[in-house]
Each structure stands twice: as structure tokens, then as C-alpha cells.
Design goal:
- There is one protein chain.
- The chain is mostly helical.
- 70% of the residues lie in helices and 0% in strands.
- It contains two helices and no strands.
- It has helices at 2-26, 29-55.
- The chain starts with a helix and ends in a 19-residue tail after the last helix.
- The model has no long low-confidence stretch (mean pLDDT 78).
Length: 74
């Protein structure tokens, strides 16, 4: 019984992949290339953001601020 359930799940995944491929082909050959280009650009921008964050350029300037405080104690 467990094999039949996993086979059904595999069939659902296969159907989803086929539908996605049909969707990409429906827009013509250029539509698939545009979607792939957008996905690649998103991946590269995420990698660039992580690299910039780890480079240390996002650290704030640290300085000591001293300000006198007057207390009104009677």
C-alpha cells in the first residue's frame, strides 16, 4: 500500500513538471529563455547581497558619544 501512495505522489510530481513545461512552451521559445534569465538574475542578486553583507562594508561607523546629564535631586 505504501508503494502505491509513493507512486501516486511521483505521478502528481510528473504531471506538475509536464504542466510547467507545457506552460513554458506555450509562450514560445523566447518565453522559457526569459523565465530562465529572470531566475538566474534572482540567484545572482541573492549571492551578491550575501557577499556584500559578509564583506564588512555594511558595518556602521562606531564612535563614542559623551553627554553630561544634570540631575535635579533635592
Amino acid at each position: 500500500m505504501a508503494y502505491m501512495m509513493s507512486q501516486a505522489a511521483a505521478n502528481v510530481e510528473g504531471i506538475q513538471w509536464r504542466r510547467m513545461l507545457i506552460f513554458l512552451r506555450a509562450g514560445g521559445p523566447d518565453m522559457g529563455r526569459i523565465i530562465i534569465l529572470i531566475l538566474v538574475l534572482l540567484l545572482l542578486s541573492a549571492i551578491a547581497l550575501v557577499g556584500y553583507a559578509y564583506s564588512g562594508l555594511m558595518q556602521p561607523d562606531v564612535q563614542t558619544v559623551t553627554q553630561p546629564v544634570e540631575l535635579d535631586v533635592d
